Amino acid sequence: MANDINIRRDKTKARIRGRVSGTPERPRLTIYKSLKRIYVQAVDDTQGITLAAASSLEKDLRGSLKNGANIEAAKAVGASIAARLKEKGITSVVFDRNGYVYHGRVKALADSAREAGLQF
Question: Consecutive 10-residue runs of the chain (120 residues): their mean pLDDT?
Fold first, then answer.
């Protein structure tokens, strides 16, 4: 059963990545969620580099979060990545949900990043 879910997500992920690409001016904001953590990074696909990253594993967030994999953690990570991108002068991104359903932690992270000033 778990393999069926991963296969479905991989197919969705490949379909999304065929349409979504990041540039230096508008990087791709991609997420990964595990059972214990949530991770996000801004990627410039033209050069193949990560411009900024944030996760619930970081020391400053880990101390303030009770759990690293809930909606509150996703909101904190979304605000953190938005702050780091704004420091670099990036205000617009392309959102890549990485095959995950836009619900729960994914939606919370996206909404938090939007509230912090990112446009997508």
Answer: 82 91 94 95 96 94 88 96 96 94 96 96
- What is the distance, to the nearest Å, from the Cα of residue 63 to the centroid of all Cα atoms in its chain? 20
* 8 A C-beta contact, residue 83 and residue 53: no
H or E segment at 87? helix 71-87
> Do strands 94-96 and 28-33 pair parallel, antiparallel, or not at all (unpaired)?
parallel
Question: In terms of Cα–Cα distance, which of 53, 52, 80, 51 is closest to 64?
Answer: 80
User: HSE (CB half, 13 Å, CA atoms) of 21?
Assistant: 7
Two tokens at 112? 């938090």
Neighbours of 12 (CB within 10 A): 15
Q: Residue 1's pLDDT is what?
A: 59
CB 52 within 8 A of CB 41: yes
Q: How far apart are CA 47 and CA 11, in angstroms?
A: 25
Residue where the block lists tokens 């393999």: 3
